[in-house]
Specification:
Distance between the termini: 30 Å
Structural class: mainly alpha
Shape: globular
Strand content: under 5%
Number of helices: 9
Radius of gyration: 18 Å
Number of domains: 1
Length: 203
């Protein structure tokens, strides 16, 4: 059983990671700014379904999946960065325009979140290296890693929901004459997420 001290340190580490913006947060914030809270929350759900699958891979000890991502590290992150840049361009070009198909946008938001969750191979490699550090009983690590993965997933989901809600509040404050500016800020955030991916290394 994992010790209370290790679990407490792990929770603090998860909170610190959740407060650090990355490509996932860029997508969630950008989506909320452009399409509103519902789309932002759906984007967060997509991101976290992808995250849970990554954590499940680590908890199940599927090292071949981790190795696959490691071998194609650059290809995956370049594709992810290109996708975020494409979203940023579309956002910029549509700045100030009303969303003509909100249901389509909401439906696509989940898929975008899920796709971007897998766009950064460093995330999966990070989980594979990060979680075992907090295992206190190395003879029976599987159950402890599963518990740590579940805790990480819950904290990440709560953090992403907060990002989506805060971004929607900012969108409401910038409504009216500032809608175009909000959309362009959203595009800039998405482009920033792409830059983070392009700058990501294995370490």
């Amino acid at each position: 059983m994992i010790s209370a001290e290790s679990l407490a340190v792990f929770v603090l580490a998860c909170l610190a990671l959740g407060a650090t913006p990355g490509p996932n947060v860029a997508l969630i914030v950008g989506t909320s700014l452009k399409h509103g809270r519902k789309a932002g929350l759906l984007s967060a759900m997509g991101v976290n379904v992808g995250l849970v699958l990554q954590l499940a891979v680590v908890a199940a000890g599927l090292s071949w999946v981790v190795d696959l991502f490691a071998r194609h590290f650059d290809l995956v992150r370049y594709l992810g960065a290109a996708y975020l840049i494409w979203l940023a361009v579309m956002q910029w070009r549509g700045a100030g325009k009303s969303t003509t198909a909100p249901h389509t946008s909401n439906h696509a938001a989940f898929g975008r979140g899920f796709a971007v969750a897998f766009a950064n191979p460093k995330t999966l490699l990070f989980h594979a290296a990060f979680l075992p550090q907090f295992v206190t009983d190395t003879a029976h690590p599987a159950g402890q890693i599963a518990l740590l993965a579940a805790v990480f997933a819950v904290i990440a989901l709560i953090g992403d929901i907060i990002w989506a809600v805060v971004a929607d509040k900012a969108r409401a404050a910038l409504s009216g004459h500032f809608t175009k500016m909000a959309d362009r800020v959203s595009a800039g955030i998405l482009a920033g997420g792409a830059l983070v991916l392009l700058a990501a290394g294995r370490r």
